[in-house]
């Protein structure tokens, strides 16, 4: 249930009203203070609450029931966009376009540092790189694991770029203590025990949509993290599995405006995994900008032909530089800036 309070309501009036709601009903009340009004989100069994009675209170402007199962991720509970701010001042969701770039897998110190320097020079504000790699084949390269995390930290030390890397299991959480943004991959989107533990952290979580997951299922996974107390969630559309076989996945570009309408959380797009083809990355990235995405996460490798994973979809540093310029121009055409 959503209760919108009148603009002239004082803090004392709001506090007294919230206390009465929690005392008389078995609900938890989340309070959101906006520029124009205060919104109360009631979570729990609201069936016993008389809407007419609540509407009649002097402090109340409007009341409505929320049918969607996701509450904390719901824009009705939080009308303004959520902005994720990192300690270094980088922001995601503030109206600008964020660029996250780097290799699928960290392979060596030289490789990750060189790529980090190049993508930073091209305008990327974040460095991505896989240390733990979930692979379809058990014989494929599984990542350097803890060593890969250390190499990412070294690249951050050299370039100053915050690092984004994927976690695969709960027991790995201590290793990610100083990772700037923890990524939950498509295969782990419904690893609910992992999501619950990430909900205990005070750290941004980049949540990728599952290969065959609906938009509501993605939002419910975000709800698991937010229900634990961590509201720093970034949603990622990375393509879904359809009957089309030309591309690795099918980019659901409509998911971007839908998610922006349903939720207040930032939405980014991964055109690399969506296509699996390097030459498709740029047009899909431009489409994501036009659709209103808050950012892009793009795979870049200094030698894609010899990459240990996902070389076919990786851009060279030179190609990424061109894509970044075109994306920048597109963002400006829509009245936005990069970074």
Secondary-structure blueprint of this entry?
Elements: E1 2-5, H1 11-24, E2 27-33, E3 38-44, H2 51-55, E4 60-64, E5 84-85, E6 91-92, E7 98-102, H3 109-121, E8 126-128, H4 146-159, E9 163-167, E10 181-184, H5 192-198, E11 205-208, H6 215-227, E12 233-237, H7 255-262, E13 267-269, H8 271-275, H9 278-291, E14 295-299, H10 317-333
Parallel strand pairs: 7-8, 7-14, 8-9, 9-10, 10-11, 11-12, 12-13, 13-14
Antiparallel strand pairs: 1-3, 1-4, 2-3, 5-6
Helix pairs in contact: 3-4, 5-6, 9-10
Can you describe what's shown?
The protein contains ten helices and 14 strands. It is an alpha/beta fold. It folds into two domains: 2-64, Phospho-2-dehydro-3-deoxyheptonate aldolase, domain 1 (Alpha-Beta Plaits); 84-333, Aldolase class I (TIM Barrel, Alpha-Beta Barrel), CATH 3.20.20.70. Helix 5 packs across helix 6 (215-227) and helix 9 packs parallel to helix 10 (317-333). 43% of the residues are buried. GO terms for molecular function: 3-deoxy-7-phosphoheptulonate synthase activity; aldehyde-lyase activity.
């Amino acid at each position: 249930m959503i209760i919108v309070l009148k603009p002239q309501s004082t803090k004392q009036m709001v506090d007294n009203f919230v206390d009465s709601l929690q005392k008389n009903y078995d609900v938890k009340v989340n309070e959101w203070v906006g520029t124009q009004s205060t919104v109360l989100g009631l979570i729990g069994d609201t069936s016993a609450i008389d809407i007419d009675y609540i509407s009649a209170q002097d402090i109340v402007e409007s009341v409505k029931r929320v049918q969607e199962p996701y509450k904390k991720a719901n824009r009705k509970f939080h009308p303004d966009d959520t902005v994720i701010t990192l300690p270094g001042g980088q922001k995601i969701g503030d109206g600008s376009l964020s660029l996250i770039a780097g290799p699928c897998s960290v392979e060596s110190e030289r490789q990750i540092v060189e790529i980090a320097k190049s993508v930073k020079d091209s305008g990327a504000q974040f460095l991505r790189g896989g240390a733990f790699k979930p692979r379809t084949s058990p014989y494929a390269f599984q990542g350097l694991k803890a060593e890969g995390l250390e190499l990412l930290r070294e690249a951050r030390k050299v370039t100053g770029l915050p690092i984004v890397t994927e976690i695969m299991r709960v027991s790995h959480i201590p290793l990610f203590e100083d990772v700037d943004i923890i990524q939950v991959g498509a295969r782990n989107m419904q690893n609910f025990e992992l999501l619950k533990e990430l909900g205990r952290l005070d750290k941004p979580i980049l949540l990728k949509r599952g290969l065959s997951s609906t938009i509501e299922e993605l939002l419910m996974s975000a709800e698991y993290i937010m229900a634990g107390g961590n509201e720093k969630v970034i949603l990622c559309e990375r393509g879904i599995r359809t009957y089309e076989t030309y591309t690795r996945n099918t980019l659901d570009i409509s998911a971007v405006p839908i998610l922006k309408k349903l939720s207040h959380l930032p939405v980014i797009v991964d055109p690399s995994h969506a296509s699996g083809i390097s030459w498709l990355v740029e047009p899909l990235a431009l489409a994501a900008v036009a659709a209103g995405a808050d950012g892009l996460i793009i795979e870049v490798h200094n030698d894609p032909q010899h990459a240990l994973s996902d070389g076919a979809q990786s851009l060279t540093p030179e190609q990424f530089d061109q894509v970044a310029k075109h994306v920048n121009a597109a963002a400006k055409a829509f009245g936005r800036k990069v970074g």
